[in-house]
Amino acid sequence: MSSAFYTLREQIHETRKKTMEQLCGVTLHGDLQERYVDWRLPLPLSKKRQERLATIRKAGVLFIHVPKNAGTAISEVLYGCSMRHESIRYYQKHAPDVVRSMPSFALWRDPVERFLSSYDFIRNGGGSHVELHPGFVERYADLTTLDRMIEYVDGASSIYQLDHVLRPQHWYLTNRQGEMAVKMLFDLKDIDRIYPFIPGLHAGEIRKVNTTRRFTTDLSAAQRQKILTIYKEDYTLRSHITQSDALPETFYAQHTTRTQKSTMGRFQPALQVSL
Fold first, then answer.
1. I need a surface site. Which of 2, 26, 176, 275 has the fewest CB within 10 A?
2. Which one Pfam family would you cite for this protein (predicted)?
3. Could you tell me the residue range of the domain that residue 19 belongs to?
4. Residue 274: count of CB within 10 angstroms of its CB
5. Same domain (yes/no): 35, 101
C-alpha cells in the first residue's frame, strides 16, 4: 500500500511539473524561476536552491555560470560543485545582498567559437560530465548540420526554446534594462590569469572539466556572418572585459613560480576542446 501511494505521489508530482512547464512555456524545469523573475512574480526557492545560495555566501564570491565558458571547472574550484546556469537577474531577485556586497564575475567567449563548441556538445549528446537535457534530445535530433542548427536558433521565438548552451551570453549577464550587471568580465583566453582578481581562486587550480571531442572547426563566410548576427549583442559585452594585464607581469611570474609543481592540469582553451 505504501509503495502504491509513493508511486501515485510521484506521478502527481511529475504531472504537476509538466503542467507548470507547459503553462510557462519552458522546457527546462529550472527555467520556471527565470520565468517568474521575468514576470516579477514570487516563487519560493527549493531547499537545494537555498543551499546553493548558502554555498555562494560562504565562498564570498558570485560566479555567473555561462555555459560553454569553462564554468563547470571554475564552479568546482570555488564551490566544490557545479552551479546552475542562473542569470544575474535571478540573483538580483533572490539574493540582492550577494549581488550588492560580493564581487561577481563571469567569463566571455568569442560567440562564433562558443556556437561551434555548443553544436558539437549537442551532436555528442553532451560532454564528459554533463548530458544534453532529455527535453532537447528529440527536439534537436533533426539538426544534423550546422546550417540547420543556425536556422533553428535564428527562428526561436523564445529564449526558453533553446538549451542553455545556445542562449546568448548577454542573457545571463545583464539586468532587466539590458545593462551589464556583473562586476567583472574576463575573456576565456585569459582564464589562467584571472586568479588575482577572484577570492578563493589560485594559480594552477582550474582543470579541464566536461570536455567533449571537437570536430567542427570550419565554417563558411555566410555561416560565420549569420552567427555573428544572431549573437551580435554578445559582442557589445567586450567593452566590459576586465584586462588581465591590470596587474604587473611580476605578479604572475612570482605566483607561477610557486605553483610549478602543481599536479593539476592547466586549462588550455582551444578549438579541440568543448567546454
1. 2
2. Sulfotransfer_2
3. 1-44
4. 25
5. no
Residues with Cβ within 8 Å of 178's Cβ and at least 6 positions away in sequence, in order, are 170
Claim to verify: residue 132 and residue 228 sit in the same structural domain: yes
Distance in angstroms (rounded) separating the CA atoms of residues 29 and 17: 7
Could you tell me if 72 and 165 are in contact, meaning their C-beta atoms sit under 8 angstroms apart?
A: no
**C-alpha to C-alpha distances, 191 to 61, 86, 242, nearest whole angstrom:** 17, 21, 12
Report the pLDDT averaged over residues 50-57: 97
pTM recorded for the entire structure: 0.82
Contact 143, 186 (CB under 8 A): no
CB-based burial of residue 119 (10 Å sphere; 0-12 exposed, 13-18 middle, 19+ buried)? buried
Q: Are residues 35 and 170 in the same domain?
A: no
